[in-house]
Amino acid sequence: MNIGVLGGGQLGRMLALAGYPLGHGFVFLDRAPEALEGLGSRIIGALDDPGALEELAARVDLVTYEFENVPVEAARALARRVPVYPGPDALEVSQDRLREKTLFRQLGIATAPFAAVDSRPGLERALDEIGLPAVLKIRRLGYDGKGQAVLRERHDADAAWTALGPSPCILEGFVGFTRELSCLGVRGRDGAMAFYPLVENRHEGGILRRSLAPASGAPDADATALVRRLAEHLDYVGVLALELFEAGATLLANEMAPRVHNSGHWTMEGAETGQFENHVRAVTGAPLGSTAAIGWSGMLNLIGAWPEPAAILAVPGAHLHLYGKAPRPGRKVGHVTVRSDDATVVADRLDAIELLIRGAA
Question: pLDDT value at position 7?
Answer without folding.
Answer: 95
